[in-house]
Amino acid sequence: MKRFIIGLISGLVLSGATVAVAAVSNEVKAILFPTSLHFYVDGKDSNSGTEEVNVLNYGNRLYVPLRVFTEKLGASVDYHAPEPGETYASVDIFKVDERDLLVHDTAGYIGIGHVAVQFTDLPTAEVNFSNITGVVKFYKPIPQGKQVVLDLLNKDNQVVAVTEPIKLRNHDVNDLEAGEGLTFEANFPYMAPVEGYQVQARIVNKTPWTYQQVYGNITGAGGMMGYPLGIGIGSEHEVKKGQPVEIRVNVLNLTEKDTIVLSQPVSFEIQVTKRVGDSNQLIRTLQTAGLTGTIYRYQGAAFTRLIWDQLDESGKAVPAGEYLASIVLPKKTVGVTIKDPNTKHEYTFEQSMQTQFPIVIQ
Q1: What is the tens place of the pLDDT at every residue in 344-361?
Q2: Which residues form the domain of 138?
Q3: What are the phi and psi torsion angles at 348 (to 5°)?
Q4: Domain identity same for 274 and 324
């Protein structure tokens, strides 16, 4: 029976899978006992060493810790607690053959494989984004302050697009240790298919403003105002007292045709206020870094994060209650379009329902 159970887990690990597990289960009584485990992989015997491994005996079946098993096979396992409203937690088991990792950064941090590139000139019902997906394995941890982007090269080895930082499921790239791996995705600007393309990986510095591709109906009633550039703000609606509040500011290009390059830095003031009687009392003022550079057409975005420490301007902790984070607007800046780089334009950011966000401190 022990051989059957281990063989079942082995098959699961080797194929790669996501396993759903019940978030709430009935209590059981079982026996735990230390065991020396032996793994026979590719003709080699590898035991669990001097580390004590507790094996569970329940119903005359042996249950081996999944993490010990997968890591001995050169795989990684990742547990995800159920999100609010979900019934099940999940376990991701990840293993990839080194021979499939054909893309590496020059500093030796990561290897990427099973790469799939999807092009679309504009979003459709079937294809929302131009993007790159695949698997990534980490050979050493990505330093704090660094992130991973992918370059798309044409047949002449020229960079024609750079992705947003790659996104992992429920993790930041800086969380992963050497030997761990996960699937990833990264969007890039909308474009027609590129003949003879190649993909290369780079480790780059994090910057105050980061490119992101957005898709959805964000204009109209209750949406962003202004054209061709819009701006919005967001955060968690409810936070615990004393918990730092992450406030996110997004600048979006709402045009379908014109990629815009901002030549004059523009920063935005964020005011945190509290309703007192018939007026709003200013609690704290925050300021973004200056934004310059490229804002890609069709909802290409630049976003930044600010942290409110739940202190007022005098450094005192604020009480629980309802607050409002707002962008002080209108605001103007100057830039050009890619199609007409010699003609400067003035762009105005306007107020809308997307430029304020309620925050409840519990």
Answers
A1: 999 999 998 899 999 999
A2: 98-206
A3: -115, 130
A4: yes
